[in-house]
Amino acid sequence: MASLGEESEVRKRMIDAEDKGDQAVLGSEVDSDDDRLPEQNIEQRTKAIPQGTEQEPHILLTLLSPLSPRWRNWVIRGIFTWLMIGLFCLIIFVGPLALMFTTLVVQVWCFKEIINIGYSVYRMHGLPWFRSLSWWFLITSNYFFYGESLVADYFSVIFSKSEIMRWLIAYHRFTSFTMYIIGFVWFVLSLKKKYYMRQFSLFAWTHVALLIVVTQSYLIIINIFHGMIWFIVPVSMIVINDVMAYMFGFFFGKTPLIQLSPKKTWEGFIGGGISTLFLGMLLSYAMCQYPFFVCPVEYSESEDIFNYSCDPSPIFRPQEYNLPETMGNVFALLGWKRTITMYPFVLHSIALSLFSSVIGPFGGFFASGFKRAFKIKDFGDVIPGHGGMMDRFDCQYLMATFVNVYIMTFISETSPQKLLQKVYMLKPEQQLQLYNMLQDSLIARGILQP
Fold first, then answer.
1. Dihedral of CA 225/229/231/232: which sign?
2. What is the per-residue pLDDT for 285?
3. Is the dihedral of CA 86, 90, 93, 97 positive or negative?
4. How far apart are CA 69 and CA 229, in angstroms?
5. Strands 261-265 and 256-258, bridge-based pairing
6. Any residues with CB less than 8 A from the CB of 194 and at least 6 apart, and which?
């Protein structure tokens, strides 16, 4: 028994010695700035990131010089807010494809801003491949999302005419996986002594950025295919909530709302929420009257164009609803009808407005916490008075996920057009087999005459 105890003690000492040796080796491989990033270091490193709210156009600065900084910022924000709204309306006028292209541009720009912060924090001197790796993973993730769902489900009629495209669609997942494995192996081969911690930190940073940016932009485009109204109304609600919360907070705000954003107030939060509810319902009512906004984006093979006209679904047709008994009695006394005619989508817009005004701002709070963690005021300087692209779209991405979940849960239904898109991707003999099976089934059920 004594010998066993001595042996275990010796073994324990050997393991402790090995651990200390490993720690000594690791300590020699990691430079003093790899693991520890004190706050003063972070602040110093992120100073190079441009701040949009501090970038004022020279002409506006000259014209608004008599104003106090607070009012000057208010005017500049107002000017560029209306410019962005005007640009947004122009893109809507061009059509759904322009909206999709704009979404992709915004996605790439937001990814660039997030990745640039990572580069500033984890200074990667002498590692030029890592920037290329980040963009390679962006291309890979976009290819995976858009290649399968969008190309195969919505553009299959167009791409099925090319043998190469048919092959790419058939083996899309394997191609996507191969692209990711190339990036993974590339990353492992790029690992460099003394930079392991930084490299793995940026590897994780890149993947989180992809999760936040690419996934959400993909859901936005999926929403557009269900009809532009599912994109325009939620986006407009976020804009309305942001603008009205800022206005109410600017003029009436006194009670702080959350520590992450000291300028946010309860007065702005409540005022923005009420404004979003009523203005969102008015916007929804107006847009339900135009097929251009409510019709899903579908490709017409006979006309070889994208079709934006359709027979609107029931949620975009006026429906008559019975009022509650008490309210109906009051209306009857006034000589009015006991019913009210409304588009069902207007009722759905109430759920969208509640989410955009109650939960949507938390996307902004999340972004504020992120910026405070790295001692920066804005993600970039692309929009004077507002900051970077991510500063304007932090709440939009959270909203896009909710809208997509809402559509898939309460709205979406399988349509003949969607099934037909999948049939077109089958081989000719498979299409013929499906046709014969469907014909036999219809005859057996008495729907068709033999």
1. positive
2. 95
3. negative
4. 38
5. antiparallel
6. 29, 30, 31, 34
Q: Which residues of the chain have pLDDT under 50?
A: 1-4, 7, 10, 14-15, 17-35
Amino acid at 80: F
* Residues 387, 434 contacting (CB under 8 angstroms): no
> Rounded to 5 degrees, what are φ and ψ at 299?
-95, 130
Residues composing the chain = 450
Q: Each residue of 105-155: pLDDT tens digit?
A: 989 998 988 888 887 776 655 566 778 899 999 999 999 988 766 665 666
The position carrying tokens 């809507």 is 92
Q: What is the Cα–Cα distance from 44 to 39, expressed in whole angstroms?
A: 9
List pLDDT tens digits, range 157-192: 556 666 777 777 778 889 999 999 999 999 999 888
Concatenated DSSP letters of 68-116: -HHHHHHHHHHHHHHHHHHHHHHHHHH-HHHHHHHHHHHHHHHHHHHHH
- The DSSP bridge partners found for residue 339 are 322
Q: What is the DSSP letter of 317?
A: S
